Input
Amino acid sequence: MPDTATIPPATAAHSASGTRRRVPPRVLAVWFAVLTVFAGLLVTAADSDQARAHGRGPAITGAWEVAVTVGTGPDATTAVSRFVFHDDRTVTTDGTPDENGVPQYPGTGYWTARGKSAFSFYVTHPGPSEPAEGVFPGTVHAVHLGRLSGNAFATTATAFTVLEQDGTVFGPVTVSARGTRLG
Output
């Protein structure tokens, strides 16, 4: 027999005393599940990128008139603004115009395809310096999950507002949006 070391099986581990012990099947199952989820996320991300590159992702690019509703119930407020989803996966919004037609609270962010008709985007924009009706002062950060249907889309989102003066965070706030393609 050759003079070689024996490699212990993958299901064995050494304890502090140097004796081998079996790894419980539940631990192996948990690690397998974690690795499977991780691999699935990688495949999903790659598939979404490939789908968009080959025209199979949502056709969200372009300009949209979007009604954004902040909150739920009778206290919810809705504002309409223009969003543009760019080919480079950025999103911009001019914000709702004030009484003089000047856009308030312009925002920027990023979007990604999430399948054939699903997409998501992150957007951030400044808010008022003082509390306004239905709006916290500070910078808004929101993540939207949406579905495209023809020349319209709908999203749900969770938003937080950060008050720059002291770092206070307001939220989470429920947000929904409905967009209609312009042009």
Notes: The chain has two domains: 12-53, 62-181. Residues 12-53 form one domain. Residues 25-53 form the longest helix (29 residues). The two ends are 80 Å apart (CA to CA).
